[in-house]
Every structure is written in structure tokens, then in C-alpha cells.
Amino acid sequence: MRRTKQIDINRALALAGTFSFLCSCSKASLLPFLTLYFRQLGLSPAMTGVVVGTQHSITLLWSPLSALLCRHYNKRRVVIGCSLVLSALIALLLLVVPPTDVSGSLFCNTSDLGVEPNDSLAEELRVTMAGPRSWTTVHLKAPVSRPSRTNVSVTRSEASPRQNVAKEEPASSRNTSVLLSSVTIPTRTSSVLHSSINSSVEPLRRKRSEVISSKPEEKKQDSLDFLSSLKEMDVHTQLFFLLMFLVSAWEFVAAPLEWAVDDGLFEYLDFADAADRHSSRELWGLLGGACGVGVSGLLVSKLSCVLAAETPRSAAHFYTYAGLAGVALPAAVYHPLYLNRKRQRAGGLVKAVQLVQGSPRALLCALTVLLVGVAGSAVDNFLLWQMQEVGGSELHMGLTLSLGLLSQAAFPLFAGWVSKILSPGRVLVVGAASLGLQCFYYSFLWGPWAALPAQVLSCFSKGALWWAVRVHCEDLAVPGAERSVRRVYKSVALHLGSGVGSFTGGFAAQRFGVTWLFRGVAVGLMAWCVCLPVLQWRAPHQRRINYSRLLAADGSDAIDSESEQERDWLDKAMEDDRSNNNSRRTSH
């Protein structure tokens, strides 16, 4: 007789919490700083928004499909391991991409450049967003004296387009550009590649003009025309398409990880009748994210400007991401997973979407979550840009984001107090209004530490909002579909809303600036917070019978109620019989 394997719930939860902590720590060490790295490479806000929006779109479409394939072929553990390894390797490939400009690629301070404060070279680092052609420009104040030519290591063929224009500028700006080329450490510039590409295009054109017209040769000529058109692109456009390809491949291998782990753990705990303890994984994820973003920011801020030859210190984020992914790999081998093929999937995504569509209040909640996702993408993509404008370093950025995650994780401590005062619908309004206040505050940053107080509002903007969404899911869903309805809301906020917000926010930041982007987002959220209570009051309130509570009740209660009804009927019949007998006796 086959013995049933004993399941240790505490051990399974400890392994799942460790894996969630390591994965969240790995992601937080890189993903919040990714848009800042794109800026250093030379991407404009619009290009950055398109790249990040494409990343969220791939996750939105590929995550449910990959989860279905993993369940069908029972390859969850293989997918988890491959996702960790391949995502780390592709992330390291982003370090091979060369920046488009030498001056805006490192963002070093005076101490990082090796310039003493007492030297005659008095510098002032200023990062501006002047227009579509100069997204990251560094201006140095230098003395009038021109340094010797021996210090200048940039030749005419290796000069960037901005240095070629220096002939038409006044003497002071020429001295500045020469000093910049002598001070900055040489990096891999794409101007050399661009000039070599342009020089290689001319022989191809002459060769194609001499080819005799024929059908196979015409096809070859068309392909050469297409390749030459790609080579003739601007350097920023080439960088954009290269990053788009790498980020898409990265997200394609990283997206199946979360759903595969979550499905396997839930079915494992559900098989052991401990599915109510599945939510502890989210808390460990928030704590891991706070630890990862804070430690990585502190680590990078303590490094020198350049780690090695031609390697900026921002590469430490990628190495930290890959290292933590490797540390999480042994935990993935022992992660509790289970595949219950006999379990009825009453909570499919299609049924969850139908439940949300059938309730007006659920639609209002989904629309609120969508707008919060749009606003949150503006904060995630461009808050570090705004902090960098006021002189913030990776230390300020890491501690600021870490405080926001810690405050979000602390909301369960106030959940009982909030539930007694406000209904879940009112909590949605408070959460959206808190995020609007945060965005409005971010538009007035005046120093590196100025963003730190606003992160305390994350306890109510994100923590309270997701608590209200969880309550809505419990009231709306049928038994077994609560987790699927919650996934619908998370997909709407974290991927659909963030994708739309990244596309639109990038073009808005390029057209109006990051400051006005935050103010516009704040005004939009505040306007929705005014309309949401009115719409909730007009929407019909549909109460559903909570069958899970009825099923959880003791069966003896039902038996007792039936026996009480039978006893009441019998007592009534006996009383009627006694009254009839008494009336007969009196008549006789």
C-alpha cells in the first residue's frame, strides 16, 4: 500500500518565502534603475517610454499563456530554473550596448572624476532636459587657458557630433569641450561605429548599381537596400531598436517566472488545506524589494565612477541582479510545487473577467486600478530622472524607494483600524488621492532628500488600495475564483495600466517635461477621486451569497436546525390535539 507523503507546511512556507525574498531582491536591485540607465545611454523620454511599455505588453500577453503551457506539460520547475538563468544572461548583455554620448554616460561627481576642489578647474555638473536633441548634457565651467594638446586624446575621426560643432562655438565653449575630453575617461562611443557604418554604405551602393537586373538579383538588391537603410539610421534610432530587441527577449524569458511559482505554491498549499496562508508570499516579496533597492543603491553610490576600463559603475546593478538570481537558483530546486490535475479550475481568467464585467462596482474598481497603474508608471519611469535633476545620487534613490516599499508592507498593521472607519469603496478613493498627492509633491522636488517624506504615503496609496481590491475580490468572486479575480486586477494595473502609462508618459515627458508630467497625472487622479464617490453611489449594489462561508459552517448546525423545525411542528400539532381534546371534554 502506497504511503501518503507527509507535508510540512511551515517548511514549505519558509522555502517559498526565501525564494520570493531573493527574487524580489534581485528584481529591485535593477528594474527601478533601468530607465535611469537608458537615459545614460542616450535614449529620449519617448523612446524610454516605448521600451518600458513594450516590456509590460509582453508580460500582459505572455504570462497567462506560459502559465497554461506549464500546467499542461507539467514543466514548472524547469521553466523557473530556465527563467532565472536566461534572464540573468540577457540582462548582462545590456552592458554591451555602447552609449551614444561620452559626456552624458557616466554622471560622475567631482570626486569621481579625480578633480580636487582646490584645483583651478572649478566644475559644475548640471543635467538638463532642454529638448529632443540634448536629453543629457553636461556643462563644465573651465578657465580660459587652453590645455596642452598632449592631454587631448580625441581625434577628428573619433569625435562625437557635438564635438564636431565646437568649431562654430566661442572660445570658452571650445575650452570646455577640450577639458571634458581630457577629464572624462574614454568610453565606448557609438560615433566611431556610426562613421564606419556610413563609410561602408558607399561601396554597397556602387556595387548594387553595377548589378545586372534579374529576378534573384533583384531580391538580393532589395535586401541590401533594406540593410543599408538600417545602417543609415541615426545613432539614437539604432540604440533604440537594439534595446527594444534585448528588453523584449529579456521579458520573454522572465515573464513566466511569477505565475509558475504562484500557481505551484497555491496548489501545494491547497492540497494540504492551507491555502489561506498563501498571502504571506506577498509580504516577503515587499521586504525583499525594499532590501534589494536600498542595498544596491548604497553599493553603487560607494563605488568609484568607473569600475574598470570602459565600465561605468551603473553596471553594478546588472551584476547584482545576476548574482542574486544565481543565489535564488538553489532555492528554486526545493521550492514547493504541486500539480493537481483533478482540481476543478472554477476560477479561470475568462470567468473572472466575466465576473468583473457583470458588476458595475467591480468595473469602477477596475477603472480606478487602471488609472492608478497609469500614474504609477510615470512615477516608476521618471521619478529617478527628477531626483537626478536636483542632484540626487543612487544612495538617495535607493533609500527613497526602499522606504516606499516598507511603508506599503506596513499597511496590514492599520487594516483593522481602517476597515472600521472606511468602506472598501472609500479606501479606493483614499488610495488614488494619496498617489495623486505624491505625484504633485514630486513635481516640486528641491533637493536629493526631498522625495523621502512623500514615500510614507505609499502606505495608503498602494497598500490601502490593494487591500480594498482584495476585499472587492472576496465579495465578488465565487468559491475558487478569488485568486483569478485578483489576478485580473493586478494585470490591469501592473501591466495594462503601466504599459499605457509608459507609452503616453514618455511622449508627455518629451513634450512638456517630467515636472508637468507629474502635475498632469496628479490633476487627473484628483479629478477621478471627485467623480468616483458619485459613481459608486449611483451604481447598484449587488450582494452575492458567500457560499464559502456556508460551506465552512458545521454540518451539525444544519442538522440541529432541521430537528428544531421538526420539533416545532410536532409541538404545534400536539398543542392543537390537546386543545381539541379539552373542547370535547367540556362539551360532554
UniProtKB/TrEMBL annotation:
| Keyword line | Membrane, Transmembrane, Transmembrane helix
* Record SUPFAM superfamilies: MFS general substrate transporter
Signal peptide (from-to) = none
Membrane-protein topology: Multi-pass membrane protein
Q: Name one GO cellular component term.
A: membrane
Source domain of life is Eukaryota
Q: Bias regions of kind Basic and acidic residues — which residues? A: 564-579
What does the UniProt entry say about where the protein is found?
A: Membrane
The residues covered by the Major facilitator superfamily associated domain are: 19-519
The segments labelled Disordered in the record are 146-173, 557-588
Looking at the UniProt entry, the stretches that span the membrane are 44-65, 77-97, 239-261, 282-300, 320-339, 360-379, 399-418, 425-444, 516-535
List, alphabetically, the Pfam families matched.
Answer: MFS_1_like
InterPro entries from the UniProt entry:
MFS_assoc_dom (IPR024989), MFS_MFSD6 (IPR051717), MFS_trans_sf (IPR036259)
Compositionally biased spans, kind Polar residues: 147-163
Protein family: Belongs to the major facilitator superfamily. MFSD6 family.
* This protein's name: Major facilitator superfamily domain containing 6-like
Organism field: Oryzias melastigma
User: Taxonomic lineage per UniProt?
Assistant: Eukaryota, Metazoa, Chordata, Craniata, Vertebrata
